[in-house]
């Protein structure tokens, strides 16, 4: 009984730490990736909010699970087990979705980048996000710098490209553009490579975390079943 109790408390602490990690990643994604995710034509902008909400919920329930194990509260242990079952289902869904829809995610960025080029110069928020993306990833345009030449902004600027396409501010020829002074790769190729490389690891981590919940569910159910009768207010026959 004591070993089972300590095992569940240790698991709850790990679960709580995982929730704290998700909260930190969600805050980082909200602050650092918000402008980039806004360029996607998919529902990616909601991802940081989902991480934040999940992290807060896991932190709260991790504490309650540890408290339930310490006090041997059967109702709280059963509720904790039910929450772990929900996290298990959500983790499996998230992991499988990341594997199955990573190509759709990349295509959503491609469509979002094309829309951003059309809105450049008309929407300051989109322009700032696109400039930040081109600087951060050292890229220019969707497929190459030539995408800017056919864009409404590029036509208004007599076939120019934004300053964010330049490798260096000094000596950069933008109109007409000199390919030697510009970032050679398009942003879609960079984003697609990033998604393809990292999404598999994200999906694997989500699936692993989901399967880990099975351990917590078993421990919580076993401990709830072994709670002594006198702690439940049930009188045993003599």
Q: What's a concise summary of this model?
A:
The chain has 9 helices and no strands.
Detail the topology: elements first, then pairings:
Layout: H1 2-32, H2 34-37, H3 47-71, H4 74-100, H5 102-119, H6 124-137, H7 146-149, H8 152-156, H9 187-225
Helix pairs in contact: 1-3, 1-9, 3-4, 4-9, 5-9
Q: What attributes characterize this protein structure?
A:
single chain, 238 residues, mainly alpha, 9 helices, disordered C terminus
Low-confidence region ranges: 229-238
Report the C-alpha radius of gyration, rounded: 25 Å
The strand count comes to 0
Helix tally equals: 9
Rounded to the nearest angstrom, the distance between the terminal CA atoms is 23 Å
What is the H/E string? HHHHHHHHH
Helix content: over 70%
